[in-house]
Design brief:
By secondary structure, this protein is α+β, with helices and mostly antiparallel strands. It is built from three helices and four strands; from the N terminus they run αββααββ. The chain is globular, with a radius of gyration of 17 Å.
């Protein structure tokens, strides 16, 4: 599940890197630096107890609002034919829900006309910790 989210983040930043215009010979380079972060932290659910929050963020192109509500649906993919099954996010969502958790996304599409400036997505997993 986490590996799938990290792989998707790497895919997103690579796609943005490849689509960032290259300067003409002798021109000034666009300073896009692909970045993927994974952060874990303690979390206190509203209903009490303890939990953990795992955030996977990238500075890729972001997810357009038009498809944001579809990304957790089975077989939905934005990748080219043969590059993705459309099951990764759906299965990740189902696994998190089956463990009493929550999987959500915060995203900001890159600004048009700015050589891809801005943008990025953060997938947040919240899981309750069971008492031992």
């Amino acid at each position: 599940m986490i590996l799938n989210l990290v792989n998707n983040a790497f895919y997103a930043v690579n796609e943005k890197r490849e689509s960032t215009p290259r300067p003409p010979e002798g021109g000034v380079a666009v300073a896009y630096k692909p970045t993927v972060n994974l952060i874990t932290s303690a979390y206190t659910p509203l209903q009490g107890g303890r939990g953990v929050q795992i955030s996977i963020s990238d500075n890729g192109p972001g997810i357009p609002d038009a498809i944001k509500d579809k990304i957790f649906q089975p077989f939905f993919t934005t990748k080219p034919t043969g590059a993705g099954t459309g099951l990764g996010l759906s299965l990740s969502y189902d696994i998190v829900k089956a463990h009493g958790g929550e999987l959500k996304v915060e995203t900001k599409p890159a600004r048009a006309g700015t050589d891809g400036e801005g943008g990025g997505s953060t997938f947040i997993i919240i899981l309750p910790l069971m008492n031992a």
